[in-house]
Amino acid sequence: MFLTKLPAPIDIHVHLRDPGDTHKEDFYTGTSAALNGGISAVFDMPNNKTPIFTEESLREKENIAKVKAVCDYGFYFGSTGKNIEEFPKVSERVVGLKLYLDQTTGDYLIRDLASIRDVFIKWPKEKVIVIHAEAENVSLVIKLAKESGNKIHITHVTTKADLERIIEAKKMSLPVTCDVTPHHLFLTDKDAVELKGKGQVKPSLANLTDKTFLWDSLSWVDCFSSDHAPHTEEEKNSPSPPYGIPGLDTMIPLLLTAVKDGSLEMDDLIQKISTNPHKIFNIPVDKDTYTEVDLDENYELKKENLKTKCCWSPYEGWQLHGKVKSVYIRGKKVMEDGRILVEKGFGRNMML
Ligand code: NCD
Ligand code: ZN
């Protein structure tokens, strides 16, 4: 068996639901799903039940992760524009700031221009602002970044029109980066019909033209991120399902399948899962942290092989090509063939 090494894969966009919604996921199950999927570090979003808008809520989360995480991690701070006085207290403890300009899980929108501008001015220039923006909001934040000089990162870019806006900004050398998710690369609005509640996600699954454009324009995309957003099967099958698709267990296996079928280069996968995330978030690559994969192993994705607490995947039954075999973090083997080999609390906060 020939194993290929992926250096320190980071998933820069996950929701581990701890504290507040630990019936969906917690720091142990979420970081176990990361290791199972070959990810050695996760950056966790601030839209918890009590959002991470204060130093106090950030400290609470830090203390929980410290005793539960099995992979390394970082946190985002969040803002709706009303907690700017907290920024100096937290900015060094987090990987970046997250802003929601468009509707999703949790009611944490920042919409008015004055507040967004104020946040841009007050957030440290060298630290990235990760933004959920769609359609004209993409143009708006690019314009603001141009004015203020902040580094912005547009996450889960979904449509042709939005990626075109970002490409235009990149051609002007503006400080704008972006990521795409596996569900927007592998699923469309047609799948959403079949998947019913399980296909409900923000941004919504788009059409084939959008999906094709993402694949054809991957050279403009900086990172892959899973936007791992677990909800229970019961919640997803209810009449008003919450938005979100789990993806930590499956992101690298799906991308390896794309490498095998020739739609993605291995070097490009490494750039987007490791090199660029480290650069954007200004974190050195640890040479003793890596994932080993077997590109030749062919298998069916089964529910029982997932580690996410929600325990479902839109890709159940898919034939995958390329299996995650083991993960090493800081020189220690932490996962092998789906078995977690370290105790809760092994994972470190990359910012502290
Ligand atoms: C996310 C969630 O459930 O927290 N849902 C989603 O559909 N992507 C929120 C988000 O990433 O915007
Ligand atoms: Zn998200």
Automatic annotation (TrEMBL):
Which PROSITE patterns does the record associate with it?
DIHYDROOROTASE_1 (PS00482), DIHYDROOROTASE_2 (PS00483)
Q: Name one GO molecular function term.
A: metal ion binding
**Record-annotated Amidohydrolase-related domain positions:** 6-283
Q: Which UniProt keywords apply?
A: Hydrolase, Metal-binding
GO annotations of cellular component type: cytoplasm
GO biological process annotation, one example:
purine nucleobase catabolic process
Top-level taxon of the source organism: Bacteria
Which cofactors does the annotated protein need, by name? Zn(2+)
Family annotation (Pfam families): Amidohydro_1 (PF01979)
The UniProt family comment states: Belongs to the metallo-dependent hydrolases superfamily. DHOase family. Class I DHOase subfamily.
Task performed by this protein:
Catalyzes the reversible cyclization of carbamoyl aspartate to dihydroorotate.
> PANTHER family recorded for this chain?
ALLANTOINASE
What is this protein called in UniProt?
Answer: Amidohydrolase-related domain-containing protein
Q: Which organism is it from?
A: Candidatus Gottesmanbacteria bacterium RIFCSPHIGHO2_02_FULL_39_11
Species lineage: Bacteria, Candidatus Gottesmaniibacteriota
